[in-house]
Design a protein that fits this description.
Layout lengths: L30 H20 L8 H19 L8 H12 L3 E11 L4 E10 L6 E8 L5 E8 L9
Antiparallel strand pairs: 1-2, 2-3, 3-4
Helix pairs in contact: 1-2
Length: 161
């Protein structure tokens, strides 16, 4: 049979088509789902008020509306606009630790009840092999350093025998 079936990656997952640096999505996109939740909650209340004594309309619509309002408000209030990208977070991490940074990695995480976006930056000093390492949390909204920790690289400490 000449028509062999072959597995293929979808175009959006094909690494050979990669162009430019990855752009982290901004958390402010959470506003749209929040607005949608509030609109659906309003529709639930309108339907409950318009058709009060029918078989399909009962107090469950009001409970659903209350839950949708809570989720919608949370979604809108946790939609922080990120003003600091990963490159600026790496610079802030180097300034906070006070040693020249070699290898580094930034990861976007969220902290607190309102899910404030934060960069978790892991860095190693510029020596080869690195003598120090550090972890820095940089606020992605205002660029402030939330916490930082640095220590001697445990891989570089000679083993005691």
């Amino acid at each position: 049979m000449t028509d062999d079936i072959r597995d293929e990656l979808p175009d959006d997952l094909d690494p050979t088509g990669f162009v430019g640096p990855y752009q982290f999505p901004d958390n402010s996109r959470r506003r749209w789902p929040g607005v949608i939740y509030l609109v659906i909650a309003a529709l639930c209340v309108i339907v409950y008020g318009a058709f009060p004594d029918t078989a399909f309309v009962n107090g469950g619509l009001l409970v659903a509306a209350a839950v949708l309002v809570a989720v919608g408000i949370f979604s809108i209030t946790s939609s922080w606009r990120m003003h600091v990208d990963e490159k600026e977070a790496l610079v802030a991490a180097q300034q906070a630790l006070g040693f020249p940074v070699g290898h580094a990695s930034a990861q976007q995480v969220w902290r607190g009840l309102r899910s404030r976006p934060t960069w978790r930056v892991m860095v190693y000093s510029a020596e080869d092999p690195p003598a120090r390492r550090g972890l820095v949390l940089v606020d992605a909204v205002d660029g402030s350093v939330v916490e930082h920790l640095s220590e001697d690289n445990p891989d570089m400490i000679p083993e005691s025998r």
